[in-house]
Structures are given as C-alpha cells and as structure tokens.
Amino acid sequence: MVSFENDYIAGAHPLILKRLMETNMEPLSGYGTDPYCESAKKKIREACVCPEAEVDFLVGGTQTNAAVISSVLRDYEGVLAAQTGHVSVHEAGAVEYAGHKVLELPHKEGKIVPSVLREYLALFYADENHEHMVFPGMVYISHPTEYGTLYTRLEMEEIAKICRSYEIPLFLDGARLGYGLTSRRTDLTLKDIARLCDVFYIGGTKVGALCGEAVVFTKQNRPPHFMNSVKKRGALLAKGRLLGIQFDTLFTDNLYFEISRHAIDMAEELKDILRRKQIPFYLESPTNQQFVILENERIRELKKKVMFSFWEKYEEKYTVVRFATSWSTTKKDLEALDEAL
Amino acid sequence: MVSFENDYIAGAHPLILKRLMETNMEPLSGYGTDPYCESAKKKIREACVCPEAEVDFLVGGTQTNAAVISSVLRDYEGVLAAQTGHVSVHEAGAVEYAGHKVLELPHKEGKIVPSVLREYLALFYADENHEHMVFPGMVYISHPTEYGTLYTRLEMEEIAKICRSYEIPLFLDGARLGYGLTSRRTDLTLKDIARLCDVFYIGGTKVGALCGEAVVFTKQNRPPHFMNSVKKRGALLAKGRLLGIQFDTLFTDNLYFEISRHAIDMAEELKDILRRKQIPFYLESPTNQQFVILENERIRELKKKVMFSFWEKYEEKYTVVRFATSWSTTKKDLEALDEAL
Amino acid sequence: MVSFENDYIAGAHPLILKRLMETNMEPLSGYGTDPYCESAKKKIREACVCPEAEVDFLVGGTQTNAAVISSVLRDYEGVLAAQTGHVSVHEAGAVEYAGHKVLELPHKEGKIVPSVLREYLALFYADENHEHMVFPGMVYISHPTEYGTLYTRLEMEEIAKICRSYEIPLFLDGARLGYGLTSRRTDLTLKDIARLCDVFYIGGTKVGALCGEAVVFTKQNRPPHFMNSVKKRGALLAKGRLLGIQFDTLFTDNLYFEISRHAIDMAEELKDILRRKQIPFYLESPTNQQFVILENERIRELKKKVMFSFWEKYEEKYTVVRFATSWSTTKKDLEALDEAL
Amino acid sequence: MVSFENDYIAGAHPLILKRLMETNMEPLSGYGTDPYCESAKKKIREACVCPEAEVDFLVGGTQTNAAVISSVLRDYEGVLAAQTGHVSVHEAGAVEYAGHKVLELPHKEGKIVPSVLREYLALFYADENHEHMVFPGMVYISHPTEYGTLYTRLEMEEIAKICRSYEIPLFLDGARLGYGLTSRRTDLTLKDIARLCDVFYIGGTKVGALCGEAVVFTKQNRPPHFMNSVKKRGALLAKGRLLGIQFDTLFTDNLYFEISRHAIDMAEELKDILRRKQIPFYLESPTNQQFVILENERIRELKKKVMFSFWEKYEEKYTVVRFATSWSTTKKDLEALDEAL
Fold first, then answer.
1. In the CATH hierarchy, which top-level class contains the domain A2-7+256-340?
2. Quick one: fold of B2-7+255-340?
3. Which residue among B156, C108, C296, C323 has its CA within the 20 to 30 Å range from the CA of B212?
4. d(C-alpha C264, C-alpha B212), whole Å
5. SS3 letters across chain A
6. Which of D76, D84, D90 to mutate to test binding with chain C, by most C CBs within 10 Å of its CB?
C-alpha cells in the first residue's frame, strides 16, 4: 500500500546502502573513532561554515535530545520548550528521566514566540520565590517543528538574542532539518543555524539514513568527556562506522540537501492535490509534513488504500491527519493518493 | 515586627516542646522504631477511622511528595497535578529529579476540575501515539490548595471515582490539612479523606510542629520496603522520636484540630479587617491563607510594619499578596495589622 | 592491517546487507511494529524452544543492560554482578545513572561462583542493618564472560536455583552469546538458557549485525509497557526494521550459529598458533576471545603489523592482551598473525 | 534499660532545648534565612579558622552525603570511598539514586590508605579503556570512620595532596566529627580539616542535636544555587531555625567540643571496663565507638540488661558488637554495664 505515514517508512537512501556494502569488510575501530566518522565531521563542519564546531554522532532523536539537554543543563536548571515540543510530549518523559523538568511554553503553530519567551524569563527572575523553582537553563526549539512550521531568520535572531542576554544556550532539534533548509519558504541557512544556536543536531533517521543524528556544538562548548556521558546514557554505538559512513555519504555532493529538496517538491505537489480536492489545511506548513482536516468517515475509507497518520481530534466528526513526504516519496505515490482521494 | 508571612514563622506549639523536654533523656531506638512513633501511628489511624492504614513520618513536604510519588509510580508513569500545584511549581523539580514527569492540568482557583481530569484521561487513551507519552499514573491534589481553596466532598468523590475507573491512585498533599478540616466552609472530614484517597499526608510543619509530615497509606498499598526507599532518598530521620513525639502530641486530645481551628478563627477575623478596609480579595479562600490585591505603593508602606508574602503580579500597579494565619497568630497580631492598614 | 582488536571490527554479515537491500524500499511502520520484527521474534522463540517468550529488539549492549536492569528492579533493589562484569566496570555507570547500585561480587575468571552468591545472600539477610542497605534484586551474569569463559550447565542450574529460592530474577548478558553456544567446550544450549534465566539477550552487534540485541523475557515477566520504558531511556529505534531484518536473517537457516561456529574455529586455530609460539595464556578461554601475556617490547613490535587490545597490566614488563576472532575472521588473517609473531 | 546502642539514643543536649524554648515564638523567615542560621554560620567559620567558608545546614547524614556528592560531581564522575564507607554500604544506594557510582576502595580499619588511592588513580588513567569507565571525581572519607578510627594529620595531608594533583575534591563526612576532634589520640584539628578538605560537614545528629549537619565548603567552591539543589533533593527544611538555633548553641562557649570530650571520657572508661573483663577488642578505636568480640551466648545474656549493636559475624560462635558512648552517656550507665558484664 502507498504510504504517507511518516518520513521514516523506508530504509536508507540507496547511495548509503552502497557505501555500507563497499566498506563492509574493512576492519575499523569502534565508538566513532574510525576515519569515516572523521571525514563526516569535517564535511559537516564545512557545510555549517563553522570550523570550530565539534560534531558527534548518536543513534536517534529522543536519545540525542535527552543526552544533550541533560549533559548541558546544570543541576538546578530545566529546559524551556513549546508545549507541543517533541521533548514535552512524545518522548515518554526522557528528559525527566534524566532528572530535569521541561518548562512548557505556550506555542504558536508549534513555535515558541520570542515575546512569550522574553516575558517568561523576566517574570521568572521577578518572582521572589524563584529560588524554589526550576531555573530556565536552556531553550529547546525544533526546526521544522512538530507541525512542519519554520522559524524565520528574524525569529531565530530574536530567540538567540534573548538566550544570550540570560546566558542560557539555544538548542535546536533538527530531526527533520533537511526539510526545513530546503523549504521554498525559508530564509534560514545551515550557516545561520550554526551561528545562532549553541548546539543543534542534523537529523539522519528522517532524512535518508537507517538511523543517526549528528550533534553539533558550535561554540567550543561541548561538555567535557561528552562521549562518556553518552555511554552512561546507553547511547554510544559500538560500530560507530554505521553512523560515520551514513553521514559521510549524506554530506558528499550535497546528497542531504538534494534528497530533502525532493521531499519538498513532493510535498508541494501533495499540497496541490489536497487543494484541488478542497480539503482544508489545519495550518500552512512549508515543509514535508502536511496537516489537513478530514471527516472521520472519509478517513476510514481512505485508510483502505493509503497510509497516513492520525494527529489529533478536531471536532466531533472531524480529525486532523498528517501526510508526510520524504526522500523516498515518488510521483507514483502521489498519483495513487490522488486517485484514492 | 508582626508577621503574616506564612504559617511556619514560629517554632512549635508549646505542648510539643514540653513533651520533647519530658522525654529528652529516654534512650530510644532510631529511624521511627520507638514507642512514640508507634503511639502516634495508632492515634492517627483512629483519627482517620481507618484501622488498616499504614503510617510513616517524614520530615518535610517536598521530600514527602517526591518520596511518595516516585515510590508509587511505575516506571512509565507520571503524576497529574494542577499547573499551580506545589509539585508543579515550587519544589525545584523534585519529582523530575526522581525521574518522573508532572503532567500539568489547568486549574480553577488551584483545584483540579473533575471534568477536566476525566477529559484528559479519555483523550490520552484515545491518542494513537500514547505509547510514546508519559502515562498518567497518579493524581496529586493539595487540600487546602496553594490558593487556600478546598475541594468539596462531591468534587473529591468525583475525582476518586475517576481515579478508580482508571486504576490510578489518588494522592492528597495535606501540608495544611488541619486548616482545611477545620474550615467553616467544608464538608470533608479526615475520615472522608482516608476513604477517598489511596495515600495522603497530614502536615505537621505548617500546623504546629517543628517539622514532620505523617504519610498515610489507606488501602494496604504501602510500597514494599517503603522505609528503604525513604532512606535511599535521604529522607529517613535518625532520631525518629522527634517526629513520633510531635505527632503523638498533636493527636492527643484533639490538639491538631484545636490549633487549626484557632488559625481559622484568626483568618475569619483577618478577612473582616480586610473587608472593612475595602481591600479586594483575589479569590474567596475559606482557610488560613488570604490573597488580596494591593497597590504596589501601599505594599511598600505596609511592609515597614507588617510581614506578608508577595504572591504574583496582578496588573501594572497592583500585586497579589498573601496574609497567612496559623496556630501561633494572636489577636494582638490582628490588631497591629488593623492599625497598620 | 590485519585486526584481532575485537569482534565488531567489520560491518555486517553479507547476508544481512543483502536483506537490507532487498527490503529497502518497502514502506514499513516504525518502532518494531513491522512484519520483519514479528518474524524475527517468532524464529527466536523457536530457537529458544520457549513459545511463551517475549522478545524485543534494542540497539546496543550497555543500553540493553541498563534498560532491562532498571525496568525489572524494584526501587529498593540493586543488581548483583561480578566485579569484572561489564555493568560493573565498562559502562560508564549506566546502571547507577538509572538509580540503582551494582553490588559487586568477587569473581573467578570473570564468573560468579555459586557458593559465593549463596553466602552473600545469606549474610545480607542475616545482617540486622539490611533495611539500610541496597537489597539484592537481580543476578547479572555474562555468558561468555568478559574473559571469554563459560558457565557450565551445572553452575547455571545452581545459580538459577539460588535466584529462585530468593525470588530474584537471573539476567544473562549474551552480547557474545553465539560464541558461547558454539564453543567446543560447553554443555549449555540456548534452550537451557531460556529455561534457567528470567531474561537474557542474544547479541547481534558482536555476532554479525551492524547493531542490535534481542532481549528475551522467558517467564511471561516482561515489565508492563516495556517499550515505553525503552523509549524513556532513549533506546527505541524509529526504524525498527533495521533490527528486525537483521535478526530475522540471523535466525534463518541457522546463520547465527554458523557464523559463531566459524569464529570458534578461527579461535581454535589462533590458540594453536599462540601455543606453537609458546606464548603463555592468561587463562583458558573456550570462546572467541583469547588472553595472553606478552612482553611490552614485543607488543610494541607486533602492533606495527597486527591490531589487538590492551587488557591489563600483568607485571612490570608484561601485559595481558586480547586477540578476538569473529564471524569475519579469515584464514588469511591467521596466517598474517602467524607470520607477524 | 541502659543503652550503648548508638550515639543518637537521646534527644538533644538540654542547652539546645532551652534555646529552642526561648526563641520559640519569634516570627522568623524560613529556609535558613533567619538570624540564628546567620549567627551559627559565623561561629562555625570562626571555629574552622576559615573566614571564606560557606556554610549550609541540612537535616541528616545520608541526605547531606547524597546532596553534596551529587551536586559537586560532574556527569561522568563517581565518588571514591572505602568499601566500608557509609555511602558504600548503609545509605540504601542514595548516591546511586542520584545517578553516580560509588567507586569502592579496599580499606584498612575503615580508612582509605593513601598509597592505595594513589595507585587506583594512576591505574585508572593508564587504562586505555577508561573513557568507558566512571571517572574518579571526588574522594569521600569519614572521620571518625564507621569503625571509630581516625586519620592522622599526615594521612590527611597525603590524601589531600593526591586529590589536588588529580584536581578532584576531598569530602569529609563528619557525622561524628566532634568525637574525632576531642579524641585523646588525634593530631588533627578543625582548622586542619578546613584547610585540607574542599568540603566537609560537622555532624549534629550524633553530637547532641535533634537533627542537623553543617556543610562547610572551604574554598569558595560551593556549587551555584546549592540551596536549589538541596530543595530539589527534598532536603531543605522549612523551619531552618531548628537547625540554626541548634548549631548556634553547639558553637557557643565550645559546647560542641565539651560534650564530645565528655563522650570520649566515657569511652575511655568503657574501654577500661572492657579490658578489665578481658573482652577482646576487634580493633583499637580512639573515639566513642568501641568494637569487641563476644560469644554469641554471652550476647544473648547481656542483651537482657544492656542495649548495644550487632556489628558483624566474627566466627561461628563469636560476633563483633559495638558499644557507643555519646554526650548523653553517664557514669551510672557505665556502672550498670560493668555490673551486667
């Protein structure tokens, strides 16, 4: 069956599998100390235009969020995130498991609004009881957000400025970063992100890899013995080559950007189809995830032919559902959807 | 200076100090195994009309909340609480430190609204992604709440019923329980609470003791080796006698209720004074904490003569402040306040 | 350069890569809900001759140890392990990070001695202070051990019997299980292990997979919502297919056992070479890891031609080093080593 | 019955109770911000001859150990302690609950031997695998130890020197510090301890207070927002006055030293009695805890008249037991023991 269920329905981009095959029998040392990891780190530093960046490879998103957040936060701090942020809702309490509170902020289409952040911080320090409260010690944003929306450069500049004025780091969850960077409606580049964030990650799992997220500390601020902290959290992969080779391939000849752009092209065509069918959008998403409102009856019918995701209840008889494209989506998939609708 | 800053401004009720003196040189075994603890437990079981209750003594409220919540929750669960709940805001992230998320619900004057709780739980299980979410594994309420308000018996019955239908325990934070039980506008008795809650605690620190909270598991549901869990959390007092003697005194001849009622009487007189001065109440509180709205200018003046607490910003020029009475408040304190206002 | 550095120097067994290629473009649902995971679980249950077994796939060994141990232990319990156990020494404190103590027992060639275990447990409960101590709540053994040694069936029966008499689960770390099961000097089968252990895992990472460990709960004792606990620990792989396809391949046509047996054959030839060169063994290992004592001088020379691992200091001028074979070791590798020696 | 069971069998020194009475009705602000805490801190700084010391009051020993250790350690570090250290054995895993490993060292009569410490650290950094191990990040010693023994000044100097050369802090658990400082066989002063340790605490619970431990950071090295970390661990007492007044009293007119010296005098008489009765000592203790070897039969008899503690099994028919004196021990207690023996 044709599937728009999410952006990790397929295996890996064929070029990645090819490289895994080619290098398979080379004896390599473990835990990220192999030359492919080295090469991938170099290419990522270049793509970020950030020569001093420190890059590490972890396996998955939840793991990366928990490891970065809990390694960077001080004992008395928590992390600020949108109420809809992945760390707030869909990670089974992984940040709390690491002993820190997620301080939830109201969101606008999945985004933190700079003025809301500013006011939160001002009020926190104005509160005479704040010594008994969790200190805001980091700002977490996802880009694209869980709703497919994007921060503008201006918004990011504002948020980064607020973070700096309070001396708290800005952390960007880029599980779907490729789909943000290649959106037709963004003015934020990878270089901007490396400049504005203190730490962020470049998602592999949802952008063509079997698994893998590349964490980038941009300001010579990698926690000491970070890999030991990663090991302690059970997040250090023995065969680091699996991550190194994948990211080395993704950052060779712009593959990461090209396959992301393909997903965006597919998403734009998907939007045309949905519009033509007069299906109302839940919000305007410029990336690979599209949220629409469907009648429950229609959902039941459509599910027989196409896979997609339940998102949230809308009204008695209506539901918000998600269609996601990815590097693996084909024209044929879209035609099948068109027909099914 | 006269103080309405909180309900723990004084030492202990004189009868408690007297008993500490009288028993001081008796050699007693430690960690709560002395006869005074035994006697206090017996009296508490009787006061609760709950012969099967299991009672333990801990030192303070945050500690008790964290120890009970994290000992009772299962690994994949979090605790539901009002956004304004003590565990949500003013415990420096103690529940999260224990590895569990506080799932915050909107509140009404500090209380959880039964219908809101019911809907939250229904939606949680309706969400297809809930396997990646923190499971609601306990309901935490405070009574009186942080705003001095009280649950009615009907509300408590409803909440307890919802908890039972989802098989999750109901935990009541009674840091100020005495002031709730002796309010002139309550229909909830200690017996009701023992019947409706799975676990609750009777606050000593804020009701006449130097320190101490009596945890009551009501349904033969005390976690196995609970005192080891308490020790592991650094919450087991070596000289358990200090807690046993205090609670034994508080539950002899109704002392706990009498000193609580005194605080309520003082609070009612305080309310009369505030009303006479035409100071607007922030909300209607039937217990020992009274929240009023004062002009910032007036606050500055009043602070020269009377101690009270900043609560929260109201408007540009107005602030919500709190006046608390306690077992130690005197008529003279009220007269001084009356004059200062 | 030829390498005996460890058993994870190569990528994956070619048949695994082939299956990853063949299935690559199939749209599959995530998090272990795909049909390959289902099929792999079925085959593992059959290989274990344990139809009621519950099987889950995790990514790596440290992660698996921490997730299983901390999900199974009760709050007041710790895990018993040999002083040399992986969880005791080489996991950066992952079990402690999860809030539990590793109770270290003296070892014999990496193994727990049943009588030592029995005495520890008897003494623990005889100690009048044990209510302030960490309760022994699980026994962790590795098989093969970190020294390549194996438990006999009799030893395992004894340990399992002790565990049962104290009602604590027995957990076997099988990161290298294949090399134990196919050793020429073992009387323990996979069926025995499933019968005697309460939970164990079948290592993939070190036995031919890119990554992956298959956890087997054998007694209908899988913790409720275990996958949520796994997610909470950042250990749930989005593309569960990567694990399912690998284990499905490993447990098709006995591949897991055949490639393990190959490693054992190579190890036996390696031992012959070492013996011929009159290099003293540190201990007698019947599996794929061989520990020998070399002069420091000779180590320096040999390192120019062959890769192997430092293990521990032996004497001033001597060091214990490890040579490991694996499914990927070739006759040619052995010839190169023979020559280099 | 006369009791030598431990050094916390009685309430508080009468002068402490007297001060609690005298100050009882003063309205004071909470959480350690009252003038008695301030005064006590000043006196402790003076007693330590360490004007830059930062002093905080916590409630109990396990709590203090866990809070200090886990606030000071970095994520990848554990704490070195003797195998017999209180944090290693009798705190129910409180340090591990805080996410850190206790790295256990062999002991000599409860003490860490400087050369053993030095070798451990040298070997750790020599081990090529140490990036996967818990880094030694603090040294924990107790003084007096759990066996009543004392470090000499020379030993302390050596340990402090080793700590400094590895840049790890030295933490001294002084739960019974008074009994060490006033021993007839010590050359270590409070000033020495403040000079050599990075952080230590002065025990109140076992030296005349109802509860309370005074933590002293000596090198301007108090973790930022330490009280928030204390609150997060549920260890912040609302009525901080209870701790402030007690320590203020203990450090007025040398009370702490005088009552400790009394316990030592009683211990020396106790030793004379035991010697006269030709009861063999398990080890030579110069402080208030005395360990002797008794026949099991004799223990049963003696327990009818005197309370003391089981310590550990010695041989089939013999057991090590402990007699402890304290500030509250009287001549009459000793006479009763003499007679009972």
1. alpha beta
2. Aspartate Aminotransferase, domain 1 (3.90.1150)
3. B156
4. 63
5. CEECCCCCCCCCCHHHHHHHHHHCCCCCCCCCCCHHHHHHHHHHHHHCCCCCCEEEEECCHHHHHHHHHHHHCCCCEEEEEECCCHHHHCCCCHHHHCCCCEEEECCECCECCHHHHHHHHHHHHHCCCHHHCCEEEEEEEECCCCCCCCCCHHHHHHHHHHHHHCCCCEEEECCCHHHHHCCCCCCCCHHHHHHHCCEEEEECCCCCCCCCEEEEECCCCCCCCHHHHHHHCCCCCCCCHHHHHHHHHHCCCCHHHHHHHHHHHHHHHHHHHHHHCCCCECCCCCCCEEEEEEEHHHHHHHCCCEECEEEEEEECCEEEEEEECCCCCCHHHHHHHHHHC
6. D90
Q: CA nearest B249: which of B294, B204, B308, B298?
A: B204
Name every residue in A having a CB less than 8 A away from some CB of D: 70-71, 74-76, 99, 131-132, 135, 223-225, 227-229, 231-232
Nearest to B63 among D91, D97, D235 (CB): D235
**What CATH code is assigned to C14-250?**
3.40.640.10
- Judged on CB neighbours under 10 Å (0-12, 13-18, 19+), A317 is exposed
8 Å CB contact of B232 and C75: yes
Q: ipTM more than 0.85?
A: yes
Q: Which among B92, B93, B71 is positioned nearest to B171, based on CA atoms? A: B71
Chain C residues in contact with D104 by the CB 8 A cut-off are 104
Q: Is C196 exposed, middle or buried (0-12, 13-18, 19+ CB in 10 A)?
A: buried
CB C235 within 8 A of CB A234: yes
Q: Six-digit token pair at C289?
A: 């890891």
Whole-model pTM?
A: 0.98
Which amino acid is it at C127? D
- What does pLDDT average to over chain A? 97
pLDDT in tens, chain D (341 residues): 899 999 999 999 999 999 999 999 999 999 999 999 999 999 999 999 999 999 999 999 999 999 999 999 999 999 999 999 999 999 999 999 999 999 999 999 999 999 999 999 999 998 878 999 999 999 999 999 999 999 999 999 999 999 999 999 999 999 999 999 999 999 999 999 999 999 999 999 999 999 999 999 999 999 999 999 999 999 999 999 999 999 999 999 999 999 999 999 999 999 999 999 999 999 999 999 999 999 999 999 999 999 999 999 899 899 999 999 999 999 999 999 999 99
Using CA atoms in the order C216, C220, C223, C226, what is the torsion angle rounded to 10 degrees?
50
Q: What CA–CA distances, in Å, run from B175 to A42, B64, B172, B178, B202?
A: 57, 10, 9, 8, 6
Of the candidates B92, B126, B128, the beta carbon closest to that of A132 is on B92
Q: Which residues of D touch C89 (CB under 8 A)?
A: 133
- Interface of chain B toward chain A, CB-CB under 8 angstroms: 76, 78, 89-93, 95-97, 99-102, 104, 123, 126-129, 132-134, 309-310, 312-313
Instruction: Show Cβ contacts of residue B49 under 8 Å, excluding neighbours closer than 6 positions.
Output: B190, B191, B194
Closest Cα in chain B, distance from residue D54 (Å): 22
How many CB pairs below 8 Å do chains C and D form together? 61
Confirm or reject CATH 3.40.640.10 for domain B26-250, answering yes or no: yes
**CA angle (D181, D244, A130) in 5-degree steps:** 125
Cβ-nearest to B25 among D10, D23, D239: D10
Q: Where are the domains of chain B?
A: 2-7+255-340, 26-250
Domains C2-7+255-340 and C14-250 alike in fold: no
| Nearest residue on chain B to A70, alpha-carbon basis | B97
Classify residue B173 by its DSSP letter. E
